[in-house]
Amino acid sequence: MNGPVAGIADEIVMKLDEAMAASGLDALLATSPENVAWVSGAAPPSQKTVRSRLAAAILPRGGNGEVVAIALEGPVVRTQSRLPELRLYEEFVEDPVLVFADSLARRGLGDAAIGVEETHLSHADYEKLARALPDARLVRADERFEELRMVKTPAEIALIRDIGAAADRIAKEVFEHFGAGSTEREIANFVAERYAEAGGDGLTMLVVGSGPRSAAVNAPPTGRALELGDVLRLDIIGTKGRYHSDVARTAVVGAPTDEVRRVYDLLVGVHHRCLEALRPGALTSDVYAIYRAAMDDAGLPPYHFVGHGLGITLHEGPFVNALTEIRLEEGMVLCIEPLTLLEGRFGVQIEDELLITVDGYEPFSEVGDLPRMAG
Amino acid sequence: MNGPVAGIADEIVMKLDEAMAASGLDALLATSPENVAWVSGAAPPSQKTVRSRLAAAILPRGGNGEVVAIALEGPVVRTQSRLPELRLYEEFVEDPVLVFADSLARRGLGDAAIGVEETHLSHADYEKLARALPDARLVRADERFEELRMVKTPAEIALIRDIGAAADRIAKEVFEHFGAGSTEREIANFVAERYAEAGGDGLTMLVVGSGPRSAAVNAPPTGRALELGDVLRLDIIGTKGRYHSDVARTAVVGAPTDEVRRVYDLLVGVHHRCLEALRPGALTSDVYAIYRAAMDDAGLPPYHFVGHGLGITLHEGPFVNALTEIRLEEGMVLCIEPLTLLEGRFGVQIEDELLITVDGYEPFSEVGDLPRMAG
Description:
The structure is a homodimer of 375-residue chains.
Chain A: H1 8-23, E1 27-30, H2 33-40, E2 56-60, E3 66-70, H3 74-80, E4 85-89, H4 96-106, E5 113-116, H5 123-132, E6 137-140, H6 142-150, H7 154-177, H8 184-197, E7 202-203, E8 207-210, E9 231-240, E10 243-253, H9 258-276, H10 284-298, E11 305-309, E12 316-321, E13 333-336, E14 339-342, E15 346-349, E16 352-357, E17 360-363, E18 372-373
Parallel strand pairs in A: 1-5, 3-4, 5-6, 10-18
Antiparallel strand pairs in A: 1-2, 2-3, 7-9, 8-9, 9-10, 11-12, 11-13, 13-16, 14-15, 16-17
Helix pairs in contact in A: 4-5, 7-8, 9-10
């Protein structure tokens, strides 16, 4: 668990305040784990695992926000939250939605325009909230949150850069320390330990896929031992201080076959061309088109996206696929990850994190030549 | 990933068919991860991590059900699902809720009474479904699912017993293999390996709390090394074939202090008395009262529940707390877990799994005398 990070709160609260003013909202009620964490810094551990253990960040226009969380996790939430108020509810005794309504009413927001998350709040909870605040106007704020979260604040950028650079270093160490005979699980344990040493909260979805498993979309580590000639695909996904890392590398045990070499070099080239296209004003669908054309030319199976925003959630805007047209802006943080999976044989993925800058991008991690592990 | 288990589907589908007949429903649309898994056996990995990647199990009265899942995870879902039909949707191209509606309409259920999960479906998705099926009647089925899931089928019982007994064995091995100087993370790695060997899908929330950390509610493993005199609290929570294990043990490194000995023996006694009260017809609130009175008499901090049902989810009905009055029935599977956390000092928890039988209970795991680890 990490404590509050100075600077983030003010920047985000300020941004939300401006957005409320622009859209005529009096308050925001964030309830999704990502927006509670983004607005307040708090991440009550069980809100993701037990659906009834709702949490909220309440932000009235003009500031002075409040986190509402389950009493059990009060001590953790207290150290995490950057908002001035904390209200705890007793599981089974109090209904969290009615506690949210009561907090809003007590703040004189019983008849206000309140931004809510319609794609997160369940239908039952939405109806309960509406009944408890009959004079309030509930306004869908989902897209507003998504948009505002795309451009990161300087403090957010520093956090993502820090754990992204650590993931890059850890991948390099894996390729130096392990080789034929090592198991995927041994590699996973090593990554987990190094990630914790780097201050990470934990790995949320680690991919360690060797041999034919390198071509599986989700390949959690198994007891499989690496063999000479294996391709190893490693994707280090975890969080530190609520922000994600997502760096993927592909290596080979011993010497690569001509085919592996060719596919790897092709993807490194595609990766480079995608990166070169990044700058404020560029369209995400145009970046996807570069990847897609290269895969089609080479007769390799393409993936349905080649990148995504990175932050409090693993996949967030801007999405880099054929169907989403988002203009890049300075301050966005993205992963660019050209990938091809040759089912039953091998998969290659190269994924780096970067920041959109005023005239291009700044990498947080940087891929090199095909790493070789001891045979 | 585990494949389908023979026998489960028919029993559960039959139960749901009877429930639909009794409540006048023509079909069920399960969308929560737990009910999709319960009805169909399918657990598309990313439905829990990416909220927009919805999945559903559609069950018309009379059988012939269907799973709807994201195309990316088609290969996994195909091996897991016990329902005859599988429909896949393309992320970003198709809206999963509109795909559910289309599947229902194609089955002639466009004007039917359809049971939905109002506490799971988001408000936005519920409204979208209602608009797509303007002649259908959407009926809240949440409580119905919960009730039906409480009494397990024989095949479900066999699955839970199997992984629960494995968790019990693994805890014993931990206390034999580790001692002063071992780190919590070493213990966690050992548990993860043994759990995988037992066929487990993975640990979803492992507690390894040593010394003062044994008193923290959620204590994921850290690099802390065990010291002489430490209390160690271990809670082995994971899944195998979609069903949970939840067995907690408390041990001491070297010899216990008089206080630790006294608190441990007291909790073992409370645990025994709670178990003795279990039989069909007993009220869960009466079982909680046994624990609560003992803690109050001893001046120890009580927890707000002493047990819960166990199955596809970690915490499900019947809840054993002061406020929930559920009459136990044959076939329910519960955890009974008397617990006291002396903040900053030590915590003791004893948690066993059991089945309610016709005249009492059958344990899946059984606690013994205070385990001592090498000093």
